[in-house]
Amino acid sequence: MTKELFLENSYQTSCEAMILTIDGEKVILDHTIFYPTGGGQEHDIGWLQQGDETVEVVKVKKEHGAIMHYVRNPEKLSKGPVKAELDWQRRHGLMRHHSMLHVLGAVFYRHYNSLCTGNQTYMDRARIDLTGITDLTAETLKEIVAKANKEILCNHKISTRIVPREEAEAISGSIKTVVNLIPETVRDIRLVKIGQIDEQACGGTHVKETREIGRIILEKSKNKGKGITRLELHLENG
Question: For the packed helices 138-153 and 88-112, what is the interaxial angle rounded to 10 degrees?
């Protein structure tokens, strides 16, 4: 199984690895810094360098439990040592927008007991689906986003920890709700904590402190039915 270095350090931009298999455009490494699409977060891109050859990593996804790195010109590679390097600009944009969604979700949960039912994180924008806020006016939504921006300026530290599933399930509130959606086969749960305002089960990449996120801009909201509202957002200078 590929060791997922991004779970330990979202800021690591390169690593030495071994190519274990090459199957057409799909490459499996023993270690990777590349995040595969999942949990609403898009995949990383970057490069693999082997000797004098460099190939692009254009997509990363999990298939049957294995992390597949889709590359251009796979014929330039062979099994053995390789250097992996991230497109940092894309990764950092994903980290900032992902952390933004956690802060925003925490504010909505605190004020409206609202839960996130889905999200999508891109390099330059994000969206989140929330329960129980369909009756809010546009002005009230802007006020809540302002509260989230205020939390961001408090510069809360962001950290992660791994706990047994039973411990995560014993935590009340939104953490328990999210954990219940994770397959029973997953016995160790990674929790992402933002200061004292939020802690969620999450396997994605995040910044170290909230001020790095920047200022949230609400683009629009729409009613998705069944008591769910979708917010579309981006970050100033993001």
Answer: 120
The SS3 assignment for 192 reads strand
106 in Cβ contact with 128 (< 8 Å): no
Assessment of whether the complete model's pTM goes beyond 0.85: yes
Q: Are 36 and 8 in contact (CB under 8 A)?
A: no
> Quick one: which of 9, 87, 38, 63 has its CA closest to 27?
63
Contact 212, 185 (CB under 8 A): no
pLDDT by position in tens, the chain (length 238): 899 999 999 999 999 999 999 999 999 999 999 999 998 999 999 999 999 999 999 999 999 989 999 999 999 999 999 999 999 999 999 999 999 999 999 999 998 888 888 899 999 999 999 988 777 788 889 999 999 999 999 999 999 999 998 888 888 766 666 676 677 778 888 999 999 999 988 999 999 999 999 999 999 999 888 889 999 999 997 6
* CA atoms of 14 and 164, how far apart (whole Å): 30
3-state secondary structure 117-172: EEEEECCCCEEEEEECCCCCCHHHHHHHHHHHHHHHHCCCEEEEEEEEHHHHHCCC
